[in-house]
Sequence to fold (74 residues):
Amino acid sequence: MDRHDPPAHDPAKTRFLTIQAVRLSGVALAVLGALVLALIVPLPEVVGYVLIALGALDVFVLPLVLARRWRSGK
Fold:
């Protein structure tokens, strides 16, 4: 392989980066929910709780679902 050839597409790297992006978006949602509950962002309190719950799902559950879905070799 010549040093000027573009690297081959690596699906594992793409999947890893996707899972990390999902986790990061979950953290962002949870922080936004905390800002709502701290009355820094003027939204109803229930919106803050919903955002925190969705953020927790994005951080803890969705990466496991994606990893299971993308698992190779059965």
Remarks:
- Residues 22-68 form one domain.
- The chain has a mean pLDDT of 91.
- The chain is about 70% helix and 0% strand.
